[in-house]
């Protein structure tokens, strides 16, 4: 048994417009939803940890996409096991966390909500392992995923998963026997595209995601997830929600516009979009990239980030790894506009700031002004030139409509909110 998991550990570490697209169902009665909590992990001190974590994740996602494409292009159609190591949500380094039940009766785990991965697993810490119940079925297969900021490896089970009022039987769940980099959480709820599970399980093929499984069993009417975040200045606060199978019109104020998943590789394998990003009248970038709840900041290709730094006058703070501006520069800060499918989504000057109440949590000065835009770590032209993390997503309603291969955005009552 030990050699098997020693190997696992080694390998773990080693639109269509809204009018033209199929419109998702809008449920006006209380939808199936799950609360989200914003979780700030004080044990991972220093902004440099956040920046390095986000950059490492972006590199890993791009590499994983290339690996997945190579495995699915095999002439025999097989894939190899790579051994990569309404529902409230929390934002905590920083992540959004949901309480997810596994088993019958369920044991509840705090899982990071991640659109950049699709495997659901628990047992990140020894004090909260996977608990077998009468609904647990051991598949005798190994499962492992690497995330850039961490990894896990273990055994794959089929079990009952509870997401708020949504109870999904026969759902694949990983039981971690090795996990690295997940302090303060119990695992991950993977809600990205199902193809991202390719090569993560020893038996080959893919693992059905919770969204796909709920839809195929007729538990939700559409294969989509509506995601609502709210900006906050508190370290741990219930300030988000997942809605399964429908959109929740109470969560947004403006029209909901959809765009197709980008066709540009490797962004096309994630919740990827095409967009143009401008600061004031200066275009910074026009390319493909991804939207990702598992990334804290907004990451831009290095050349675009350099333009942003020049027009804002920001300087790099070596202590935190964040860009920093003076009060005078803040008074002159212009909107940062994301043009997606012909619709402009604007981050106000205030929305471009890291919450000042959390400055000391990133190792910064309490009265300093830090920006949420940072360096992707590579030049543009690579097919994944930006990552819109939840620093962007918390200002807009966000829909991943996997069934129609599209992504939706809308303004909310928090789009222009002042939180700093």
UniProtKB/TrEMBL annotation:
<feature type="signal peptide">
    <location>
        <begin position="1"/>
        <end position="22"/>
    </location>
</feature>
<dbReference type="Pfam" id="PF00026">
    <property type="entry name" value="Asp"/>
</dbReference>
<dbReference type="InterPro" id="IPR021109">
    <property type="entry name" value="Peptidase_aspartic_dom_sf"/>
</dbReference>
<dbReference type="InterPro" id="IPR033121">
    <property type="entry name" value="PEPTIDASE_A1"/>
</dbReference>
<dbReference type="GO" id="GO:0004190">
    <property type="term" value="F:aspartic-type endopeptidase activity"/>
</dbReference>
<protein>
    <submittedName>
        <fullName>Family A1 protease</fullName>
    </submittedName>
</protein>
<keyword id="KW-0378">Hydrolase</keyword>
<dbReference type="InterPro" id="IPR001969">
    <property type="entry name" value="Aspartic_peptidase_AS"/>
</dbReference>
<feature type="active site">
    <location>
        <position position="114"/>
    </location>
</feature>
<dbReference type="InterPro" id="IPR034164">
    <property type="entry name" value="Pepsin-like_dom"/>
</dbReference>
<comment type="similarity">
    <text>Belongs to the peptidase A1 family.</text>
</comment>
<keyword id="KW-0064">Aspartyl protease</keyword>
<dbReference type="InterPro" id="IPR001461">
    <property type="entry name" value="Aspartic_peptidase_A1"/>
</dbReference>
<keyword id="KW-0732">Signal</keyword>
<dbReference type="GO" id="GO:0006508">
    <property type="term" value="P:proteolysis"/>
</dbReference>
<feature type="domain" description="Peptidase A1">
    <location>
        <begin position="96"/>
        <end position="410"/>
    </location>
</feature>
<keyword id="KW-0645">Protease</keyword>
<feature type="active site">
    <location>
        <position position="292"/>
    </location>
</feature>
């Amino acid at each position: 048994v030990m050699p098997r998991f020693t190997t696992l550990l080694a390998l773990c570490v080693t639109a269509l417009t809204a009018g033209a697209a199929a419109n998702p169902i809008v449920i006006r009665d209380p939808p199936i939803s799950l609360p989200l909590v914003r979780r700030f992990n004080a044990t991972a001190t220093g902004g440099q940890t956040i920046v390095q974590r986000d950059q490492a994740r972006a590199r890993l996602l791009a590499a994983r996409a290339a690996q997945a494409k190579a495995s699915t292009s095999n002439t025999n159609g097989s894939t190899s096991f790579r051994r990569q190591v309404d529902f409230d949500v929390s934002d905590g380094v920083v992540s959004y966390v949901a309480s997810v039940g596994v088993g019958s009766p369920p044991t509840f785990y705090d899982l990071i909500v991640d659109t950049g991965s699709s495997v659901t697993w628990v047992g990140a810490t020894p004090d909260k392992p996977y608990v077998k119940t009468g609904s647990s079925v051991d598949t005798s297969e190994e499962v492992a995923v690497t995330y850039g900021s961490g990894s896990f490896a273990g055994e794959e089970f089929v079990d009952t998963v509870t997401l708020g009022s949504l109870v999904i039987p026969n759902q694949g769940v990983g039981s971690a026997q090795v996990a690295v980099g997940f302090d303060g959480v119990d695992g991950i709820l993977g809600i990205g595209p199902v193809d991202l599970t390719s090569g993560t399980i020893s038996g080959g093929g893919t693992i059905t995601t919770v969204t796909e499984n709920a839809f195929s069993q007729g538990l939700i009417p559409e294969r989509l997830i509506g995601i609502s975040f709210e900006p906050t200045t508190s370290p741990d606060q219930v300030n988000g929600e997942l809605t399964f199978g429908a959109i929740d019109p109470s969560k947004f104020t403006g029209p909901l516009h959809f765009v197709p998943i980008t066709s540009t590789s490797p962004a096309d394998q994630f919740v990827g979009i095409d967009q143009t990003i401008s600061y004031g009248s200066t275009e910074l970038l026009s390319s493909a990239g991804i939207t990702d709840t598992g990334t804290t900041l907004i990451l831009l290709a290095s050349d675009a980030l350099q333009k942003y730094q020049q027009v804002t006058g920001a300087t790099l703070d070596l202590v935190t790894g964040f860009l920093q501006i003076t009060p005078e520069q803040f008074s002159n800060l212009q909107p940062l506009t994301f043009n997606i499918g012909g619709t402009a989504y604007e981050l106000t000057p205030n929305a471009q700031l890291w919450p000042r109440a959390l400055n000391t949590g990133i190792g910064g000065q309490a009265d300093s002004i830090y920006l949420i835009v940072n360096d992707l770590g590579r030049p543009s032209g690579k097919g994944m030139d930006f990552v819109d993390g939840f620093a962007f997503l918390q200002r807009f309603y966000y829909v991943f409509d996997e069934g129609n291969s599209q992504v939706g955005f809308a303004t909310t009552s928090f789009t222009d909110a002042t939180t700093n």
